[in-house]
Write a structure and sequence with these properties.
The chain is mostly helical. The chain contains 8 helices and no strands. Among the domains are: about 50 residues; about 35 residues. About 65% of the residues lie in helices and about 0% in strands. Helix 3 runs antiparallel to helix 4 and helix 7 crosses helix 8.
């Protein structure tokens, strides 16, 4: 049975704390006095955000070990599942602290490629599809003489 106290609070839980409006902050403070599973999950989410502020790989690994323990002992199925996913990508996540590189650019390129594929509704051949990707992602500016 859903908790009536949580009605209209979705954005409080998914937004970053510093981005909450004054009214949402006040509501969050009111909810913090209750023993809610949602609040426990929110606190674990917020503590994981602090992980990215670690200065080096060793510090980050120690922080992640503690976070992982807390998450897996939270008795919240969704949080435990996220923790296990993080565990399966442990080294890749920690590599960020050496290279400071994310896969955000690749995700953006993939998104554009999928959009090209959807808009075309099929290509005659693979080379035409590849050319369209190069033209779109390459941001070529063809200024024809007028």
């Amino acid at each position: 049975m859903p908790n009536k106290e949580l009605k209209n609070t979705k954005f409080i839980w998914i937004m970053n704390e510093e981005n909450l409006k004054q009214k949402q902050r006040k509501r969050l403070l009111e909810l913090q006095n209750q023993k809610l599973k949602t609040l426990r999950a929110y606190n674990i989410k917020e503590s994981l955000r602090k992980f990215w502020k670690c200065g080096n790989r060793e510090e980050a690994e120690q922080y992640l070990i503690k976070w992982y323990f807390r998450a897996t002992h939270s008795r919240l199925e969704a949080v435990i599942e996220v923790a296990k996913t993080i565990k399966s990508h442990w080294d890749g996540i920690l590599n960020y602290f050496e290279s400071r590189i994310t896969n955000g650019i690749l995700e953006g390129i993939n998104s554009i490629t999928q959009l090209i594929k959807r808009n075309a509704r099929g290509f005659r051949n693979i080379q035409y599809f590849i050319n369209m990707i190069y033209l779109k992602i390459g941001k070529l500016d063809f200024k024809l003489p007028t």
